[in-house]
Specification:
Elements: E1 5-9, H1 13-25, E2 31-35, H2 38-46, E3 62-65, H3 74-82, E4 92-96, H4 101-109, E5 114-117, H5 122-139
Parallel strand pairs: 1-2, 1-3, 3-4, 4-5
Length: about 150
């Protein structure tokens, strides 16, 4: 894991493909890791579960988080990230098809750095993902990422 990584937490394979293509089209040279549910996202970030043998090196530069996930919802993932000193400041963008106002409010209450509703139109979706990648990975300044050590 390194700050040259984007963690994409998405259970829909078509959305994974579209998001990866959009980021690659931006010519952003980051390694994209896709995981399919909330439990796997936390395992990846904290080097637990099936990722327990990976060498913890640091956090990804950005997490793109869907809300509707199996096993552990995106809001539950976000709550755990914000409740842990190691991941409290990790940039997390909610990237979801949910149009529910409650999801937006809950995401903001849990200090998501952004909330993007997945546009239905492909070109609009690609443009939105490219813009968020360019801003969060190239323009935005943030403090150096922490190294994650298991508690």
């Amino acid at each position: 894991m390194s700050n040259k990584t984007i963690l994409l937490v998405e259970d829909n394979p078509d959305d994974v493909t579209l998001t990866v293509k959009a980021l690659n089209k931006s010519h952003i040279s980051y390694h994209i890791v896709a995981v399919g549910d909330g439990v796997e996202a936390l395992d990846y970030l904290f080097s637990t579960g099936k990722y327990a043998d990976q060498q913890p090196a640091g956090l990804p530069a950005l997490v793109l988080l869907d809300l509707s996930l199996p096993r552990l919802s995106g809001l539950e993932v976000l709550q755990r990230l914000r409740g842990d000193d190691r991941t409290r400041h990790l940039p997390v963008i909610v990237l979801t098809s949910s149009g529910k106002e409650k999801d937006l409010v809950d995401s903001q209450d849990l200090r998501a750095n952004g909330y993007i509703r997945k546009p239905v139109e492909l070109a609009t979706f690609v443009e939105a993902v490219q813009e968020l990648g360019l801003f969060w990975l190239l323009t935005n300044e943030r403090h150096p990422p922490k190294t994650v050590q298991n508690k």
